[in-house]
């Protein structure tokens, strides 16, 4: 429900005010709220299960990104200034990687911390150019190579860490 609120309801509600700023925060919040569920209720029970968890962890993480990014893409049809699909794809992937890293480092209940913190910080980073696009990649334009590399590295690192190690106890 919170993912739908963040990614689908906010864009049409903001109307003319829909911008890169609100899109970054909405997508970051959508990925972050879904990231809270990246751990089971009983980690000891999860770790003793007779089936392999890594493929399930990978699918779970990718589903979060697909739902958040997909809903955000669908909502762009209802706003006056839609975000580019490449921008949404890049940011959903990068924020998803941050969610995986946060769950691995801090625990599944804190999977929301890194994507929301990075999205909230990125909108206030001043400047322009490649260095800005690395630090503030969520607000960079869709054609920024530095932002794509940063988001891609975060996606690979976070997805691999969470898939292999799972959420921290």
- What amount of the residues lies in strands? under 5%
Structural class label:
mainly alpha
Spatial shape: globular
SS field, number of helical segments: 8
Secondary-structure blueprint:
Blueprint: H1 2-14, H2 20-35, H3 43-47, H4 54-75, H5 85-106, H6 113-122, H7 130-135, H8 145-165
Characterise this structure.
It is built from eight helices and no strands. The mean pLDDT is about 85. It has helices spanning about 1-15, 20-35, 45, 55-75, 85-105, 115-120, 130-135, 145-165. The longest helix has 22 residues, at about 55-75. By secondary structure, the protein is an all-alpha fold.
Descriptive key words:
8 helices, 169 residues
Summarize the structure.
The chain is mainly α and 169 residues long. It has 8 helices and no strands.
